[in-house]
């Protein structure tokens, strides 16, 4: 399994608060069978420049790096970001600078305020004009937005749709999550883990539910998609 969305770097955002917590989060991920993670701390353009963000991310990673050899079956890793949408994002250099590793995959968090058609157009421009592979973060959080606009994202073959494991685990949302996965509306899973309690590493729980309810065909597809992304990230 590949965790394409997590906040395990220490002290860089609202995720892990310490190296010790990051180590424990990685240990729990490894124990679940997670073979690779992409560290995706939050990027907000109104708070940081890409350069300032990258410097903070680099410092956080440097603190964690010496601990990797101490983690049994430590997952492979890559650096990325969860880039919060901002007006003008498609004309900014931020998406290119904040891709996973040196690849062309970028994780975009859509706004939680009411969507406008121009927002979706900007996401489409990042894909078409900048030539980047856009991954839409935790699609389940936007399902109360204008259905036509949500559908534009989901139906766009040039975009990848990521869901959090919690969407499949929670009893109130699991049925919808499975329905969306079966319909081909979800391409990737991430833990979006921030800590060891309320937002813990939980990827294997979601995979177990999916395999039990839908069969290995669907877990295999998610695993294949995760590997596809990670292999491109690490092979460039």
Core attributes:
236 residues; alpha/beta; TIM Barrel; three-stranded parallel beta sheet; globular
List the helices and strands and how they pair.
Layout: E1 2-6, H1 19-31, E2 36-39, E3 42-43, H2 50-64, E4 76-79, E5 82-84, H3 94-97, E6 105-109, H4 117-128, E7 133-136, H5 147-155, E8 159-164, H6 165-169, H7 171-182, E9 188-190, H8 203-214, H9 216-234
Parallel strand pairs: 1-2, 2-4, 3-5, 5-6, 6-7, 7-8, 8-9
Helix pairs in contact: 8-9
Kindly provide the name of the CATH class: Alpha Beta
Secondary-structure element order, N to C? EHEEHEEHEHEHEHHEHH
- Name the beta content range: 15-25%
CATH superfamily: Metal-dependent hydrolases
For the biggest sheet, the summary is:
6 strands, parallel
Instruction: List low-confidence stretches.
Output: none
Taking strands numbered 1, 2, ... along the chain, how are they ordered across the largest sheet?
Answer: 3-5-6-7-8-9
Shape: globular
Fraction of helical residues: 40-55%
Q: Give the terminus-to-terminus CA distance.
A: 20 Å
């Amino acid at each position: 399994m590949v965790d394409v969305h997590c906040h395990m770097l220490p002290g860089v955002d609202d995720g892990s608060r310490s190296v010790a917590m990051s180590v424990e989060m990685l240990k729990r991920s490894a124990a679940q069978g997670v073979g690779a993670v992409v560290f995706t701390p939050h990027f907000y353009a109104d708070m940081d420049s890409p350069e300032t963000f990258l410097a903070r991310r680099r410092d956080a990673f440097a603190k964690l790096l010496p601990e990797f050899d101490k983690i049994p079956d430590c997952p492979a890793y890559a650096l990325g970001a969860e880039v919060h949408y901002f007006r003008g994002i498609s004309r900014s250099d931020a998406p290119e600078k904040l891709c996973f590793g040196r690849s062309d995959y970028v994780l975009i968090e859509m706004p939680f305020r009411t969507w406008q058609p121009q927002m979706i157009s900007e996401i489409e421009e990042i894909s078409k004009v900048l030539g980047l592979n856009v991954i839409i973060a935790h699609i389940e959080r936007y399902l109360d937005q204008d259905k036509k606009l949500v559908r534009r994202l989901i139906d766009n073959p040039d975009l990848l749709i990521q869901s959090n494991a919690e969407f499949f685990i929670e009893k109130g949302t699991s049925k919808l999550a499975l329905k969306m996965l079966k319909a081909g509306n979800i391409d990737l899973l991430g833990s979006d883990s921030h800590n060891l309690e309320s937002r813990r590493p939980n990827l294997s729980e979601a995979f177990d539910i999916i395999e039990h309810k839908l069969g290995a065909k669907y877990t295999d597809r998610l695993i294949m998609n995760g590997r596809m992304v990670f292999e491109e990230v690490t092979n460039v």
